[in-house]
């Protein structure tokens, strides 16, 4: 693992960053304008004391003005998913759809026992682990060399492979992330704890005002310990498809009524009457109004309604959903371990290499079970997850977020599993909100435009040539 802070490290840069945060803290009670406040914050030590005092009082919004960018190399997708799961973190990651991963390397943990102490047979277990990882990477290479595209071959990649990330976040998110990595449940995973330590070492040098708050942070406990003392853990059952499990009733009307209420500053009752009056004069009034709302830039009315889904998804594709920040996504913890027998099979594999593919997953489970017999801690077994292993996630999103996701993920250029998921979500929403549903899907269908340029799938040309608007996803 290697982590570097990109920029903001020189003495002058550090002084400027601290000055900006101090000025943000001083501004609300200083008589002068913002430029006079900045000019008054000209002493590094005094600025640092001021910032520490303010954040100790709980006023941490001022440190959101300090934005930091990190380069992170040689970390597993466990780190990657943890970073992406912090919704206010920005990130760029090497694509597994475009890059051959056979030689990227992989993470080797120091294996521990159930008490999270180094296992007495650690070296022996590491050797067996490395042998198995090489087997998996070799099988990945064989699939690629035999004509299976990288996009589908990656489903057998173990969750130990090395990833590279550029991560950006403000100091408030950095503090929250590091505290969870050092003291929370995530700290039991060695690699995540190491990430926390590395970031903390950088903080001590380049974000010094966070040191005290991190060191005095409360330790979080597992919220499920109480529940699991009362009930038995059920068997994991993966859904057969995305399911709309809850939604805003009469979502179409709620969107339209909300639009009228804020525009005219009227009551809900008045908005309902105005909508009825409009529909009496034009039977298509609702549809026309919804079309206008859907296609305007600031369509905040769509945020007035919500849809909750349970979604079956593979680890390889999970990041395609997680990276959409503006929805409330609940992903199962890596520990306790999921059922490794739950995995997806790409169509390209079914045609030629189904037996081999199943054999790879079976072999992975066999080695995993051997490690369980050795008494290895579950926190060190998470690297036996393969990209094709499935989990159920739960999410709640506004119609505006659903519209954004559907534009990107219903596109023919999207990866096939996330595309199928997005299409099914849209299909189910159309049944309960038909007017909204007409505006969901790729832009070639909903707006008759395509932003893919030379990489377009070509559907937009067919739509424009035939001058048809009745294409559906």
What is the 3D form?
Answer: globular
Percentage of residues assigned to helices: 40-55%
Q: What sequence of helices (H) and strands (E) makes up the elements?
A: EHHHEHEHHEHHHHEHHHEHEHHEHHHHH
Pairing-aware structural class of the strands and helices? Answer: alpha+beta
Overview of the molecule:
- The protein has 473 residues and is α+β, with helices and mostly antiparallel strands.
- Among the domains are: 2-72 and 164-225, no CATH class; 249-303, no CATH class.
- 49% of the residues lie in helices and 11% in strands.
- The chain has 21 helices and eight strands.
- It has helices spanning 11-27, 34-40, 44-56, 77-85, 122-145, 150-153, 171-183, 190-206, 211-215, 224-228, 251-264, 268-281, 285-295, 315-322, 347-352, 354-373, 399-409, 416-432, 434-437, 443-446, 459-466; strands spanning 2-5, 67-75, 90-93, 163-170, 243-247, 306-314, 328-330, 390-398.
- The protein has a four-stranded antiparallel beta sheet. It has a four-stranded antiparallel beta sheet with strand order 5-6-8-7.
- The longest helix has 24 residues, at 122-145.
- The protein is globular, with a radius of gyration of 26 Å.
- The mean pLDDT is 92.
Secondary structure: elements and pairs:
Elements: E1 2-5, H1 11-27, H2 34-40, H3 44-56, E2 67-75, H4 77-85, E3 90-93, H5 122-145, H6 150-153, E4 163-170, H7 171-183, H8 190-206, H9 211-215, H10 224-228, E5 243-247, H11 251-264, H12 268-281, H13 285-295, E6 306-314, H14 315-322, E7 328-330, H15 347-352, H16 354-373, E8 390-398, H17 399-409, H18 416-432, H19 434-437, H20 443-446, H21 459-466
Antiparallel strand pairs: 1-2, 2-4, 3-4, 5-6, 6-8, 7-8
């Amino acid at each position: 693992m290697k982590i570097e802070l990109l920029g903001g490290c020189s003495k002058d840069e550090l002084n400027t960053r601290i000055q900006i945060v101090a000025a943000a803290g001083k501004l609300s009670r200083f008589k002068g304008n913002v430029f006079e406040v900045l000019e008054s914050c000209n002493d590094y030590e005094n600025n640092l004391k001021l910032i520490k005092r303010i954040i100790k009082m709980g006023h941490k919004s001022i440190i959101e003005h300090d934005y930091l960018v990190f380069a992170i190399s040689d970390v597993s997708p466990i780190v990657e998913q943890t970073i992406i799961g912090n919704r206010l973190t920005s990130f760029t990651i090497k694509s597994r759809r475009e890059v051959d991963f056979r030689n990227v390397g992989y993470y080797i943990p120091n294996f521990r026992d159930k008490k999270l102490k180094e296992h007495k047979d650690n070296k022996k277990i590491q050797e067996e682990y490395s042998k198995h990882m090489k087997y998996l990477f070799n099988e990945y290479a064989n699939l690629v060399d035999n004509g299976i595209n990288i996009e589908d071959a990656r489903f057998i990649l173990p969750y130990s492979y090395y990833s590279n990330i550029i991560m950006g976040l403000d100091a408030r998110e950095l503090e929250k992330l590091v505290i969870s990595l050092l003291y929370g449940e995530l700290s039991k995973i060695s690699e995540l704890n190491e990430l926390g330590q590395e970031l903390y070492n950088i903080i001590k040098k380049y974000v010094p005002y966070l040191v005290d708050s991190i060191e005095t942070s409360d330790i979080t406990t597992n919220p499920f310990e109480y529940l699991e003392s009362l009930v038995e853990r059920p068997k994991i059952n993966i859904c057969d498809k995305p399911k709309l499990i809850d939604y805003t009733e009469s979502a179409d009307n709620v969107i339209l009524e909300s639009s009228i209420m804020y525009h005219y500053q009227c009551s809900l009752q008045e908005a309902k009457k105005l909508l009825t009056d409009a529909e009496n004069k034009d039977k298509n009034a609702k549809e026309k109004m919804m079309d206008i709302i859907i296609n305007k830039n600031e369509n905040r009315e769509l945020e007035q309604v919500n849809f909750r889904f349970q979604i079956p998804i593979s680890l390889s594709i999970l990041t395609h959903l997680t990276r959409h920040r503006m929805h409330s996504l609940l992903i199962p913890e890596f520990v306790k371990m999921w059922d490794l027998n739950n995995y997806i099979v790409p169509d390209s594999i079914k045609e030629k290499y189904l037996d081999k593919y199943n054999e790879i997953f079976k072999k992975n489970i066999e080695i995993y079970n051997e490690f369980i017999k050795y008494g290895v801690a579950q926190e060190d077994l998470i690297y036996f997850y393969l990209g094709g292993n499935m989990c159920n996630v739960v999410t709640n999103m506004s119609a505006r977020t659903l519209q954004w996701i559907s534009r990107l993920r219903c596109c023919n250029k999207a990866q096939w599993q996330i595309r199928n998921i997005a299409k099914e979500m849209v299909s189910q929403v159309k049944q309960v909100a038909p007017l909204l549903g007409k505006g969901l899907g790729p832009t070639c269908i909903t707006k008759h435009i395509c932003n893919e340029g030379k990489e377009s799938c070509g559907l937009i040309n067919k739509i424009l040539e035939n001058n048809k608007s009745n294409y559906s996803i």
